[in-house]
Amino acid sequence: MIDLNDVQQFNDLSKKIFQELKKDFIGQEEIVEEVIIALISSGNILLEGVPGVGKTRLVRSLSQLFDLSFVRIQFTPDLMPNDIIGTNLIINENNSNNIFQFKKGPIFNNIILADEINRANAKTQSALLEAMQEHRVSVNGITYKIDEPFFVIATQNPLDLVSTYPLPEAQLDRFMFKLIIKNPNLKEVKEIVNMTQINMHENAQKVCSKEELIKMGEVAKNVFIAKPVLNYALSLCSMANTNKSIKQYLTQGISPRASQALINSSKVLALLKGRYNVSYSDIDHLIYPILRHRLKLSFEAITNNYTPDDIIKLMIDICAKNKNGGNR
What we know:
single chain; alpha/beta; Rossmann fold; Helicase, Ruva Protein, domain 3; 5-stranded parallel β-sheet
């Protein structure tokens, strides 16, 4: 049962969060909303866009307003896993005995900005896998916990740019959302230029503690989702594995993580919209950032110039007509 006092606190904090972000990030309201949804849902985020559209600035602002420890790791072809995780050092104790001491790497922070993650090789990319899922790191058989909350927010250049390495499926599946940041329009560019002429630094102030952020996620878990809406959401995600009309455009199916992410994030969106229950529109809205990086297009889809979003739209159309997806 959802507590109305908790909901009121959730709404008050969310309003303050969006107000603070407007100080540093112009436009892209849908992107900002989806980033906040992912953080409240304890999800990792993959941001794709050409350089200069404000991806790094957005993440720095988020760390300030949530008062979270933050580190930016620039991914390059020569970056090594130990540069991220940390390494064992030989310490001379009392000039007699040498002992190993683990020196923690930058991954032991609340927000990791993996900048241009697809410029590093696969070995380095995989250094994030355990931390992204279990929020811990294992080194030489010893496991080290990472303080909560923990998020990986990775920026990615479009794959047609020079010197980019596609992320492996196992890593892509650990991102809750893939968000595509488009170039700002002329009005937004003018506002960005005026803002940065005054101050290049982020202006967001702390309005929500890490404990309050975790509490917001706990409150959202109590949002009601009716059985027909739940069935519709699960049917949408399962179409990549079961529906022949969809499978012809894909080379593989998707894991249960997609369904988990869709349900968790749709509950947060419902609260942000002032509702105590998940609607079909919440599912339709969030299925795009949840699935677009999980769908691997087949040759037939590519030759027809289909994008992942085109396939998702087809899934929605088919599922809406399917009685098993619920009456809409």
